[in-house]
Design brief:
GO cellular component, one term: membrane
Membrane topology: Multi-pass membrane protein
Oligomer: single chain
InterPro entries: PER33/POM33_regulator, TMEM33/Pom33
Protein name: Transmembrane protein 33 homolog
Number of helices: 11
Radius of gyration: 28 Å
Keywords: Membrane, Transmembrane, Transmembrane helix
Structural class: mainly alpha
Length: 271
């Protein structure tokens, strides 16, 4: 005997489905934004916004210097404005890091020296007072661009914007930060022979390589950013591989080892 079961109509089936789906736990709603508008964020985080503006100016002047046909700022003027904006950025950042506290004692000086912001403040001032060296603009420009991208994603997230550019910026900064730090470290190292060559060509100051050596020593000893030490270690390993190669002439191999020993003997201890 076949049992006849009445099929539910469409209304009943949809209501049943809605009831079953309603009984399942729904995902929690996203948290409300911390700030209702960008202006509110700016009012609450004025220093961060000033730093962002200074970094944008650094990138702007760098583009005018590297791409002269933009024509908004003369190239020679743009070069020095790169380092002026960079010096302002790192001075403000250093002020934030030391929380506005200032003292003329050894403890404060030691605390100041280990700050990366102090290193790049010195870097910016040194090249602000020297003849133009195009490669010198690269580190501060890359740093400014990276921090500007990070700030843009932060302010858009915290003000409730859901633009598709936010995850792209976050992904870009996450994937490219290490590459950018490596480029910065290598450019800072390769500036040393370039500055020495400028002396022999009559375009550089005798004091510039010595001042720059102090900066590079500070970067090598940095605790927060080991990219300079890593770059030196990678270069040392590559040169040692070349020197140990059977195809490398003995005088060249000896010269490489002497250069490695000379540079290693002058490496400062890590702070």
């Amino acid at each position: 005997m076949v049992e006849i079961v009445e099929e539910p109509d469409d209304h009943q089936s949809s209501s049943t489905g809605a009831g079953s789906s309603g009984s399942s736990s729904a995902p929690p709603p996203p948290p409300p934004p911390a700030y209702s508008s960008i202006s509110q964020y700016v009012s609450a985080n004025t220093m961060e916004c000033v730093l962002f503006a200074a970094r944008v100016l650094t990138v702007f002047f760098a583009l005018n210097y590297m791409i002269p046909f933009i024509g908004l700022v003369p190239a020679h003027s743009a070069y020095y404005k790169i380092f002026a904006a960079s010096a302002a950025t790192f001075a403000l950042r250093l002020h934030t890091r030391i929380q506005g506290q200032f003292a003329l004692n050894a403890q404060f000086i030691q605390r100041l020296i280990i700050e990366d912001s102090f290193h790049y403040l010195v870097y910016s001032v040194v090249f602000l007072m020297a003849a133009p060296v195009s490669m010198a603009a690269l580190p501060v420009t890359i740093y400014a661009a990276l921090h500007a991208c990070t700030f843009m994603t932060k302010i858009l997230r915290e003000t409730g914007h859901t633009s598709s550019i936010i995850p792209k910026l976050e992904q870009f900064t996450a994937h490219q930060t290490q590459n950018a730090l490596g480029i910065i470290a290598c450019s800072e190292i390769f500036l040393v022979p370039l500055l020495v060559s400028l002396i022999f060509s009559g375009k550089g100051s005798l004091l510039l390589p010595f001042a720059y050596y102090r900066f590079l020593s500070l970067r090598y000893a940095s605790r927060r950013n080991p990219s300079t030490r890593q770059a030196f270690a990678q270069m040392r390993g590559s040169l040692q591989n070349v020197a140990m190669s059977s195809s490398c002439p003995r005088p060249i191999s000896s010269l490489i080892y002497r250069a490695i020993d000379f540079i290693s003997a002058r490496a400062p201890p890590v702070m």
